[in-house]
């Protein structure tokens, strides 16, 4: 059997970055990891941001939630400490914010190109571990896409067409809402087991085991028409 | 949410042809059909056939199972009557048999090209509804592949390389065995609900509903690190 894992994330979300790593730690130890398919789904923490708005994340957070900038910076240092524990680089200063809608569109394109994992890793690295600004800069985004192995012209075409994969992003967000997810990361294992947040690797390991271990439930009548190594059984014509 | 349906089939299997249609009848009526992903998996009814062996299916069946050829032909007429009930063309004479291994390899290639559904339909049509022989004839197989929308050169490359997708076929077969499937068609809905055989459309409808209706089961602690519309909560640093 195979297990599918759906992971709702936002590029703006530090705990998605950390949660991905913890999930991967569990996946690396999972005996049937080659039979696990991971699909990253879209979730915008702030879907109302205009595409051209960006700026310092600490100041933005301080303003948005009415906390001192120092506290927002302390938050960043707290997250950086957690990131360091799982071996992830995390810059505590200068991270920017902005709309992630185009990035999610590009992640859907990357899924079709089997490069989604690479693109998400590259986006997280660009956002959390590299000094250069990421948001509101199309050429920077294209650089990241190319680094992830996407064809530059294809990626440019996706970005140039605001409708490309836009519905796919919105469908993902509707599905997250329908599942009751109000924050990210949000993981669903085998369509059944939900893990909310950057939980310890052990939690992800348990969810993988649960999804894997589910026994099949037979549906329908027992004696239906099948073909097997001994031929096709046709009730009513052979006896 | 989305539901994945895995369907083990063989091109040699009349009930897979019928079962696919009955499943599609249920799928057409299913309100969330756009969120259902169908993946066709490999199952060879006779994995020991040499690639160049082929011949009349009625005579082959008669010989293999020690029944009169007339009875094998009567079987075919019985299946044709069932096929007619679901609007499928089915020739009762002249169907050939042979190894389906290369067809399964090509179906895996088609899956990557998003043409699997088209190729399987074209293979079934070629085998059950068209007079021309199908097995052991590479050019005929290429014709069918092109008709299904595959690039001819790509398809030829897959057929020319006996290793291409060979492991994928074998993995599918191992998984079917691990799931206890001894015949086909064999359907697994949402990794959980199994339907064996060409059951009535109502059975497939029920399996779709069951897979769709499964509620999420939360795993892990309640208060984990998440980011939401109101920011990222970092236990221990903000209070």
From TrEMBL, chains A, B:
<dbReference type="Pfam" id="PF01323">
    <property type="entry name" value="DSBA"/>
</dbReference>
<protein>
    <recommendedName>
        <fullName>DSBA-like thioredoxin domain-containing protein</fullName>
    </recommendedName>
</protein>
<feature type="domain" description="DSBA-like thioredoxin">
    <location>
        <begin position="4"/>
        <end position="209"/>
    </location>
</feature>
<dbReference type="InterPro" id="IPR036249">
    <property type="entry name" value="Thioredoxin-like_sf"/>
</dbReference>
<dbReference type="GO" id="GO:0016491">
    <property type="term" value="F:oxidoreductase activity"/>
</dbReference>
<dbReference type="InterPro" id="IPR001853">
    <property type="entry name" value="DSBA-like_thioredoxin_dom"/>
</dbReference>
């Amino acid at each position: 059997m195979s297990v599918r894992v759906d992971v709702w994330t936002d590029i703006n979300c530090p705990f998605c970055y950390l949660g991905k790593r913890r999930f991967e730690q569990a996946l690396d130890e999972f005996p049937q990891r080659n039979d696990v398919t991971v699909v990253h789904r879209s979730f915008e923490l702030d879907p109302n941001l205009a595409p051209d708005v960006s700026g310092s994340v600490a100041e933005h957070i301080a303003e948005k939630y009415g906390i001192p900038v120092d506290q927002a910076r302390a938050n960043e240092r707290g997250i950086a400490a957690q990131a360091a524990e799982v071996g992830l680089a995390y810059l505590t200063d200068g991270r920017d914010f902005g709309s992630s809608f185009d990035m999610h569109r590009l992640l859907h394109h990357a899924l079709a190109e089997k490069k989604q994992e690479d693109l998400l890793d590259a986006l997280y690295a660009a956002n959390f571990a590299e000094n250069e600004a990421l948001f509101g800069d199309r050429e920077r985004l294209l650089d990241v896409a190319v680094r992830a192995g996407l064809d530059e012209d294809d990626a440019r075409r996706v970005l140039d067409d605001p409708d490309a994969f836009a519905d796919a992003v919105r469908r993902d967000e509707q599905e997250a809402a329908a599942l009751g997810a109000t924050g990210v990361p949000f993981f669903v294992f085998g369509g059944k087991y939900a893990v909310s947040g950057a939980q310890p690797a052990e939690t992800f390991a348990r969810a993988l085991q649960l999804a894997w271990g589910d026994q099949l439930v037979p549906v329908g009548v027992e004696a239906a028409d099948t073909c097997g190594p001994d031929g096709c059984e046709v009730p009513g014509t052979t006896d």
